[in-house]
Amino acid sequence: MDKQNQEHGDTVSHVIYIVAELLVVGALVLTACGSAADKGGVVKALKPAVAAQTTTSIAIEPGHSSTASGAVSCDGQYKEATITDDIANRVAQKLRDAGYQVTVYRDNKGDFEGQTYQAFVAIHVDNYCPNGNQTGYKVTRYAGTRGTGLLNNGDASDRLTQAIWDTFGAATGIPQDHSAGRYTDDFIYYFGLPGGNNGVSANTPGTIIELGWMQDPDLSILINRPDDVARGVADGIVRFIGGN
C-alpha cells in the first residue's frame, strides 16, 4: 500500500472509531431516557439554577369577628370588631405594598394555631365607659410586665413590641398608656400570642396592641384617621423585621 492510500486508510479508521463511540454514547442516553419513561418520569433539558425567592410571612389578627362585636362605643354607635377589621386590612395592604406576604385572620383564627410567622400582631380596642375620659394605646407581648408589656430580655417578641410602641404614637398622636392596672390577664396572656392557649408557634415573635379607647379623643382618631392608625402598626412591623 502506497503512502497516500495508507494515510487515507488511517483517516477512515479514525472516523469509524469516533462514530462508534458516538453511537455507544447515544445508546446509553436512549437507555436512560427509556428507563425514565418506564417509571413515568419526564426527561427535560437541564436549566440554569435559579436562586430561591424568599417571602416574609406576617399574621395579623383583628380582635373579635363578624359574629362577635367585642367592645361597643359608649354611644353605642361603633363596634370594636368593625374597627379592628378595617385597621387590620389596611395594615395588611400597606405591608403587601411594601412586598411582604400577609394573612389576616378574622373568622378563621384557629388556622394560625401552632404556625410560624415572621411576626404575629393582634389588634384590639379598649372600652370602659363608666369612668370615661380614658385615652392611650398599650402594647404587650405574652406575659409582658404590666405597664410596659416587655420582659426586657431583648428577644424577638420584646423587639416587636417595642417597635410598635415607638411607631404607633408617632403616627397617630394617641398617648401611651402605661397604667399597670389596665394590663389585664386577658391582655397580657392573650390566647393567640406565642405561649397562649391557642397561640402561634413559640418561634413566632408576637404582640398585641390596644389601639386606644372606644371613646373620644381616641375614637375620633380611629374612625377619621384609619390610614394613620394602620401606618402606626405597619411601620412598627417593618422596623422590627428590618432590624432582625
Protein described:
It is a single chain. The protein is an alpha/beta fold and 244 residues long. It folds into two domains: 47 residues; 187 residues, Zn-dependent exopeptidases (Aminopeptidase, 3-Layer(aba) Sandwich). The chain is 41% helix and 12% strand. It has a five-stranded mixed sheet. Helix 2 links the parallel strand 1 and strand 2. The longest helix has 36 residues. The termini are far apart. The N terminus is likely disordered.
SS content category: alpha/beta
Number of domains: 2
Shape: globular
Helix and strand sequence? HEHEEEHHEHH
Per-chain topology:
Blueprint: H1 3-38, E1 57-62, H2 80-97, E2 101-104, E3 119-126, E4 138-140, H3 156-172, H4 185-188, E5 206-213, H5 218-224, H6 226-243
Parallel strand pairs: 1-2, 1-3, 3-5
Antiparallel strand pairs: 4-5
Quick description:
By secondary structure, the chain is α/β, with parallel strands linked by helices. The chain has six helices and five strands, in the order H-E-H-E-E-E-H-H-E-H-H.
What descriptors fit this protein?
244 residues, alpha/beta, Aminopeptidase, 2 domains, five-stranded mixed β-sheet, 6 helices, 5 strands, disordered N terminus
